[in-house]
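pasting for ref
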Amino acid sequence: MKNCNQCGKCCIKYSDGGLSASADEIKAWEIFRPDIHQYVRDGKIWAHPETGEQLSYCPFLKKVPSENKFSYQEKYTCGIYLDRPEDCRLYPSNIAEMVRDECEMIEAVDLKNTKRAQIKLDTLMSDSRPANRPCKLNCVTAH
């Protein structure tokens, strides 16, 4: 399992209405981050602030200029990383999800032993997932 290479596939795939935010997150944005809250409409995230129409991608996903002029790999960063929705903080949650989404963190060796790969993933994601809350989709925990 590789570290995230910031390919942006997950953000691009799920940011067009595939993500949600809790009522608590939305309330916190309303109070502390109106720059984020302006993209919330009727409890749904990433709506155009003026029209209310669902955006096709997260407005906080930013392409990072390549430092290597020979690399064609696009990299992305999150403009609200510390205040991103829980859906974003918990992704990816399991190996099957990573395979389905063509996540670039997964390697061929991970597919040979998915239980070991899940433990690696859970370890990599441990600082994004609350300690008292298991991940959503049947994760194996490494204790």
